[in-house]
Specification:
The protein has 249 residues and is mainly α. The protein has helices at 2-38, 45-50, 76-97, 103-134, 136-141, 151-191, 209-219, 224-236, 238-245. Helix 3 packs antiparallel against helix 4 (103-134), helix 4 runs antiparallel to helix 6 and helix 6 packs across helix 7 (209-219).
Length: 249
């Protein structure tokens, strides 16, 4: 009997995780399609069929030979739209497929994810991004450079000029994650009346790959690498929805 109960629990967990994953991918994909249409991309099946896969809006990368080619842009409002769709999908599936006793914890987690893990980091990165881009010429003018005599020196100077961007990205992301964690703790205590005292550790930054992708997509100049990261941000943003739908506390 105990073995059957364990097997049933495993099947239920698998069903929950699979259902939440499918719902999250579906709603995030729908939000991405809405963003693409809003930005002028055709969603007509016939038009998509005639377009090479690599040139589809969701896969298209920046090409310096075609700098004016239309690209999907993911700024703060688009990222929040994708995250909201992800959380909505994960929450809906979680409430439908999981035990009703976890309903409140999933709703609480949905608020924590949207505000603490998405909105606050995005707000911090977005603010620093605008500030950095405004003063970029002045900042780069102060970066020391060596005399360029060949490929190595050119690459070395390019790497030096990339340091301010790297520092700004990491710093804004760090502030956003720490601030988001505090917002989540405050929400738990003041709104949900659940006392949570949790210090951030180095390992806590591991789940924030999605935030790193968002930071680079918001701050980086147009390039193939930056556009690639932008393309995979929607996949990263499925994580909050999955965490909401599978949350039990």
């Amino acid at each position: 009997m105990q073995v059957n109960a364990v097997n049933n629990d495993k099947r239920n967990d698998y069903k929950l995780k699979a259902g939440v994953t499918a719902a999250t991918v579906l709603t995030t994909g729908a939000a991405l399609a809405h963003i693409a249409k809003r930005q002028g991309f055709s969603l007509s099946p016939s038009a998509i069929k005639k377009t090479p896969v690599k040139d589809w809006a969701v896969f298209r990368l920046y090409d310096k030979k075609r700098p004016d080619r239309k690209m999907i842009e993911l700024e703060e409002k688009e990222i929040l739209e994708l995250a909201s769709a992800s959380v909505a999908g994960g929450l809906s599936a979680g409430l439908l497929l999981d035990d009703k006793k976890y309903k409140k914890s999933k709703i609480r987690e949905s608020v924590n994810q949207l505000l603490g893990n998405v909105a606050v980091p995005v707000a911090c990165v977005g603010a620093v991004s605008r500030l950095y881009k405004k003063y970029k010429p002045q900042i780069l003018a102060k970066v020391p450079q060596i005399k360029e005599t060949g490929k190595f020196s050119r690459n070395f100077n390019k790497a030096l000029k990339g340091i301010p961007f790297s520092i700004a990205t990491i710093a804004s992301l760090g502030v956003g994650i720490v601030g988001g964690n505090r917002v989540s703790n405050l929400l738990n205590e003041k709104v949900f009346h659940k006392k949570v005292e949790r210090e951030i550790k180095g390992t806590d930054f591991a789940p924030h790959v999605d935030d790193l992708g968002m930071a680079v997509s918001l701050m980086a100049e147009k390039s193939k690498a930056a556009s690639f990261i932008t393309r995979i941000v929607p996949a990263f943003l499925c994580v909050p929805g999955y965490q909401v739908g599978t949350h039990r506390d």
